[in-house]
Write a structure and sequence with these properties.
Blueprint (H helix, E strand, L loop, with lengths): L6 H4 L2 H5 L11 E10 L3 H12 L4 E4 L15 E2 L7 H21 L1 H11 L11 E5 L2 H15 L6 E3 L1 H8 L6 E5 L3 E2 L2 H14 L3 E3 L6 E5 L2 E5 L3 E10 L17 E10 L4 H6 L6 E3 L6 E5 L5 E6 L4 H18 L8 E11 L6 E4 L4 E5 L6 H15 L23 H18 L2
Parallel strand pairs: 1-2, 1-11, 2-8, 4-13, 11-18
Antiparallel strand pairs: 3-7, 4-6, 5-6, 9-10, 10-11, 12-15, 12-16, 13-14, 14-15, 17-18
The structure holds flavin-adenine dinucleotide.
Amino acid sequence: MIADETPVLANSLWTATAPPQPPFPRLSGPVETEVAIVGGGVTGLSAALHLAERGIAAVVLEAQQPGWGASGRNGGQLNPGLKHDPDAVERRFGPDMAARMLALSGNAPALTVDLARRHGIACDAVTSGWIQPAHDAASLATLGARARQWQARGVPLRMLSQQEISTLIGTPVYIGGLLDPRGANVHPLALTQGLAAAAARQGAAIHGGSAVLSIRRDGAGHLLRTADGQVRARRVLICTNAQTDGLIVPLARTLVPVRSVQVATAPLPDALRAAILPGRQAVSDSRRVMVYYRMDAAGRLILGGRGDYSDRVTARLMQNLRRIGRGMFPQLADTPFDHAWGGLVAMTADHYPHLSPHGDGILSATGYNGRGLALGVAMGRVLADWASGTPLAALEFPVTPPRPIPLHALRKPAVRAAVALFRLRDRLGI
Ligand SMILES: Cc1cc2nc3c(=O)[nH]c(=O)nc-3n(C[C@H](O)[C@H](O)[C@H](O)COP(=O)(O)OP(=O)(O)OC[C@H]3O[C@@H](n4cnc5c(N)ncnc54)[C@H](O)[C@@H]3O)c2cc1C
């Protein structure tokens, strides 16, 4: 179970199966360091590990325990790229910055798998590829354009015929699709806790139960206060994503947190494992309300989707996911779904993540739009680059001022309306 979580979101497969990890201690008393990191998910822990590898002192302050946020609850898909296709990234950011962003995001799964391998993190990492299937001619055309744009940049994406996709996934429901060989998948909590343990071994200080209550300027640096301690640091990295609170104004108003949920079957018998996703690729279905799924190392089918805020609607979404799973794979009719859990993803108005300064010496990386497992690890490295002296303009991702979303207070009804509309359009096929 995920501790300190609402019951409907707490029954996590990952907490039930991650290697045991003793809790990290609370911060107590005053500490001096080079870099203070707020948030112990993949972004903050990757930053800490990359800094520690360079011999730079870092302190991570996590309100709960490392992996308590989305990093320890997600679908475990290491997806390459950004939400936008390469040509759109280039139009918006120009060829030089776009090339850096595409390299960073495209290589993010490989970076993550390599980091896990170098630090001996046992997290069932497999680079088996990422499938984006198509339901209809329009989505197939979108995938074709995506393939051509990456191919033009030297990345060997490959379109799949109806026959190929039905063999790879084990269902006849799709008319074709796209295979991105860079995609990988992992046990996300084992990865996140492994990053924390590796960063600690390399010399970073990691603290659980240490919510940062305030940050204020202090001479040439900053002073961060927790209930029992304080950290004085030259630079501060804010890595709180969808869990962002009022610590740094106006960061929370640049993000729309949305619940995302997962359901997982019991381990499947060998005959079903041979028929459903035998190559263990991750799949993101191209419907407007995305459904994504994959097989884990123990042969459990894990499906995810997103939606609402209330527990009642969340429970209904979980039931929908089970129904979708059994619809695609009728062989699962009698298979129990053992786990159902969820968490928050952080959406942004332009669907890009944002790297934003908050005065001198504070930088945040947030807003992964539900695709931040590999990208968060990569952005953690970018934050570490900045904290170890790389100028803002030379980073692999653009730095933009925090821009609050207009009418942010109306986010909940707006999300509900958008999701309801997309579901209707999916049903009607328009
Ligand atoms: C159900 C679900 C499924 C998902 N599936 C996928 C997937 O398959 N692939 C993918 O790429 N992405 C997926 N995502 C998104 C992905 O998990 C996130 O984008 C990513 O983990 C963000 O990492 P992070 O380190 O930035 O934030 P988080 O992991 O959310 O960590 C932020 C941390 O900050 C801490 N914090 C907040 N405020 C404070 C404070 N004041 N002081 C101290 N600590 C604080 C929180 O406790 C939290 O632990 C999914 C997300 C969810 C919820």
